[in-house]
Structures are given as C-alpha cells and as structure tokens.
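Notebook entry, structure prediction.
Reason for the run: the old model in the group folder had no record of what sequence produced it. Starting over properly, with the input documented here first.
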Amino acid sequence: MENAYQLGVWQSLYVMLGTSSAALIGLLFVVTSLHLDEIMNNPVFRNRAHNITLHLLTTLVEATLILAPQPMAVLGIELVAINLFGLRLPLGFTYRAFYKDKKMGKSGGFSIYRAITYVANYLLGIAGGAALIEHANWGLYLVTAAYVTFLVSGILNAWTIMLGVGQTGTTKKAK
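New structure, fully documented this time:
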C-alpha cells in the first residue's frame, strides 16, 4: 500500500489535532447543556452552536481520515468530499442571511467575516485534497492550515456564545 504522504511525520500532529477537536466538541456539549434554555431560545446562539459543532465534527473526521492507513489519492478524494460537504454550511447560511431571511442577517446572527473564513477554510481543504489526489505531499500543509484555522475559529465563536455576544442581536455600538 502506498503511504507516500508519510503518516509518521504527521501522526503526532493529527493525534493532537483530532484530540483537540473531540475535546472541544465535548466542551461545547457541556456548555450548551448547562445553558440549553438560553441557547434554544436565541436563534443566534442556536445557529452558532450548531455550526461550530458541525465544523468541529468535520475536523475530527479529517483527523480520522488522515490517520487511517490508505493510499494518498484515496485520502485526497475523502478530504475533497468532506470539505465539499462542509462547504454547504457557510454557503447555505450566507444564502439564508442575504436572500431568504434578511432579518436574521441583520440580527447579529450573521458575520460576513465568519462566512468568508469558513468558506476559505473549506476551499483550502478541497485544494489540499486535490493536491493529494495528484500525489503532491504539500497538499497536507493546506489541509492542516485549514484545520488549525477551524479550531481557532471554533474556539473564538464558542467564546462569543459563552460571553453572550449577540444575545440582543448586536454587540454594543460606539456612540
């Protein structure tokens, strides 16, 4: 079996990243269960918690795929598929915020910067997977950059839920 992307070099990193994703998912479940009524009654928090969970699940699946011994091209196909699947989240949310439910977009539940970050991360993951299909080892660097950015974004977005940013739909504005 071809294993040219040198799993041994990446193994420790992806064990750590996968463990981080799993831990963050668990912590997110704990936090949301402690404040379930508040989160369920606030569409901004509910959508944000839902999306953070799905993005972190995507990273956990990616870590699992990368750690599974398999040919590089197969890994590339799997990474392209999981990132294409994940790309529907920010694109769908952006579509709803701008076209279907403009009120939601103005309520503080939508951030164009957050959407751009997630779309860019999924596109980076797709590009990395495509590079691996072509047997270019550098593709894993792209996937890793997207992965780490997802983790950081997930932490920062979870922090906004914890602090209650967006509860009234907007943050405090300067007068």
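Summary: Helices lie at 7-34, 36-40, 43-67, 72-100, 102-106, 112-133, 139-163.
The old model has been moved to the deprecated folder.
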